[in-house]
Amino acid sequence: MITMVVSTFTYKFAVAFLASVLMICGGSVYLWEHSLYGPMPSSGAVVDTARPELWVRTLIPGGRPEIILDGELLKTERLKNTLIFFATARRLADGEHQAMASLWPPWSTLQPARLSWSFAVDTVAPQLKLDFPKKKHLTSESQIQVIGRTDHDARVVIRCGAAQEQAAVSPSGRIRRSVALESGENIVEIEAVDPGGNRTVRVTTVVCDPDPPSVIPLSPAPGSVAHEESVKIAARVSDRGSGLSALFLQVDDARPIPVSLPKKGDNVTVSLSHLPQGERRITLRAVDKAGGEAPSMWRFVVDNTEVLGREILTRGALGADVKRMQKRLVALGYLDPGGVTGKFDDPTEDAVKWLQQASRLKPDGRVEGKTIAALSPRMYINLSKFSLALVEGPDTYKIFPIACGSPAYPTPVGTFQVTDLILNPTWFPPKSPWAKEAQITPPGPGNPLGTRWIGLNSSVVGIHGTYSDWSIGYPVSHGCIRMRVRDVEEIFNRVNVGTEVVILSGWEKSPVLDLYWPPTKKKP
34 an active-site residue? Predict the structure, then answer.
């Protein structure tokens, strides 16, 4: 019985012992074959050196380590007192590389532990092209767009002062990121880092000038009336930041014109001639080197002539020329008699537009050119009858006697316009043989032009007075139309610059001749 118990115990112990041995041996085999881990560079990594060190960790001490790279066995060593072995690669080309680490066991009955992985070498820094801003960029904005290009797999960081921002990179490598700026000089650093750790840095300077230039109008003073023929525009322009870059002057809605920059300490001055009569709007726009703008606008009234037609009339104009225009608008039925105020106001502007529409002109309310002609009386001259018809309306006209050019100096026929209206003119002898011995004659009795000169757009003919009343009704002048002094003074006050003058020989077939000089019926 005892023998039997011992035998049973021995068997069970042997089975247990054998099972334990098998478990230990099997575990050791498994542990050995899977003892390698944690390679460096890691699997799939990208390194920025052509001679990387390859490291492998092991769970078990002992054994013979080796590392093969791209099929070549490298000199492999253990790191003293560690479970790490390593090898240094030869110089590698950029691209992917295959590595395999092995740990050979001290017993030939076991297979070596193996670990395979791949990594890439990239020693080329990423491209980084900065399109905007360029170096020494000036801006008036508190933010700026950084725009550029890099490798599609690069990571981009932008630093400006204490701020740091990461910029997104598009699949095509485009970069666009807003960066906040401080007033003054800003150092902007853009860094691109590729997966291998290669870096490219671009640095640019951006100067932020948020304060625009200052423009202070000086003359004409806002709301004032300018009586000068040439109006002097003056302003004080300054900039405390980046400095002035450009100046532009605009009158009303006309195209802005560039103006020369003033010297330091000087004012901006521009002289403008032939400005339309009336309210003018001046805009002076100053631009600094950072792009900041300071437009300054002010208004004043131009009133430098009392002669209707000499200058353009617009809303806001003042004076006798406006009053004469208003009287014509009343006579033509476009303005109430109470509207004759001497000021080009809204009712006057409406009346001008109605006249323009009736005359098939652009209804812009500006009295110039064809509007002057439509507004003005007309003069018709019949040379054969030695007479002038001043027509102020369909049924309103007056006939005046005249003298005209002699056969040697005939008065030209055609359509002309009044260009000058001169009170008490000075006579300057023309460059003609008949005036070779003549002298300049000041205003007064004996002046060949009398007391009024109505100039036409012709170098040959004008209308003027004469103290030689006996010449009226005869062809005795040197081409001009002569009138009695009292007659020319009358029409002088009723016409204006732009008035149309039609000179007829008197022998044409013309409805004008039939209307104002109807044929005399023969007695039966």
Answer: no
